[in-house]
Design goal:
291 residues, mainly alpha, Recoverin, domain 1, two-stranded antiparallel ribbon, 6 strands, elongated, calcium, EF_Hand_1_Ca_BS
Length: 291
């Protein structure tokens, strides 16, 4: 296959930087006071117990403690002020909290959380989804990412889907005039590297084997999971809240004020202006696909 060349002599595929789709999303500020003092609609003990009971029934391994589950329920209620998060609000959460910017993949992550396919994410679906999204094993994250990348919800990802995903997540560089041709080159590179059974598409086994050989390929078609910094910030929020949610634990006004200040410091970092697009240098992209 011939490669189009830029003025620098590199192939056009090598001149691509990947980036999230650049959209402006609304921003929302969290305040600990409304959580700590029950303003708005606090989470009932019954609702939390229901989530904990349902989690206990699940066969898949759970990675959050009871206290952390309660913290996630509290965050959920603070975000939505009801018992469901709709698609636009969920997209805001993905963008503002986890730095996601790709519209296609934000919708696919929403779909992965919305297990009953009713167009909303319940409190239980929120907790179960975050179990994999934040703390899943490699196998769990591979399955989650594959489901997001398989735009038709099938057991394989077609050439056309790979093209669509890459086109949604690349940023055209100056001097590379034929973006579609460059993306087609990347599609061929991807299939050559990952299509283990040579059927001209990526099955779930192809994807799993490829990621286990090279974990960087978990995000080869765009950002699905939170980046390390945002994940750590969210985990710190959960950790701090979980210290307060042991039933019957009492705090002085001074202790509560100190915790409030720490929480809001963490949230301030979470609310920093997002630099749109997860970008990779040419060298990083070349290293992933070995071209």
């Amino acid at each position: 296959m011939s490669s189009s060349k830029s003025k620098t002599g590199r192939s056009s595929a090598q001149n691509i930087e990947t980036s999230g789709t650049r959209k402006v999303h609304s921003r929302h500020t969290w305040k600990l006071e409304s959580i700590s003092h029950g303003k708005g609609q606090p989470v009932s003990r019954k609702a939390i117990q229901h989530v904990q009971d349902e989690v206990a029934k699940r066969k898949d391994k759970f990675h959050f403690s009871k206290q952390e589950i309660e913290s996630l329920c509290t965050i959920f209620r603070h975000l939505t002020k009801s018992d469901r998060i709709d698609r636009p609000r969920f997209r805001d959460v993905l963008h503002n909290t986890f730095d996601m910017t790709d519209d296609i993949l934000m919708d696919r992550v929403f779909k992965a959380f919305d297990r009953d396919n009713d167009g909303q994410v319940s409190m239980l679906e929120w907790v179960v989804g975050l179990n994999t999204y934040l703390r899943g094993t490699l196998d769990e994250k591979i399955a989650f990412a594959f489901n997001c990348y398989s735009l038709k919800g099938e057991k394989h990802i077609t050439r056309e889907e790979i093209f669509q995903l890459l086109k949604s997540s690349v940023l055209k560089q100056a001097g590379d005039e034929d973006l579609d041709e460059s993306i087609k080159e990347l599609v061929e590179i991807t299939l050559k590297k990952m299509d283990k059974d040579h059927d001209n598409r990526l099955g779930d086994n192809d994807f799993s084997q490829s990621v286990k050989e090279d974990p960087l390929l978990l995000s080869c078609f765009g950002q699905v999971f939170a980046n390390a910094r945002r994940k750590a910030e969210f985990e710190r929020v959960v950790e701090h809240m979980s210290e307060e949610v042991v039933f019957g634990q009492q705090f002085t006004q001074e202790q509560l004020a100190a915790r409030k200040a720490e929480f809001e410091r963490v949230v301030e970092h979470m609310s920093e202006e997002v630099v749109f697009g997860q970008q990779f240098t040419q060298e990083q992209l070349a290293a992933v696909f070995n071209y």
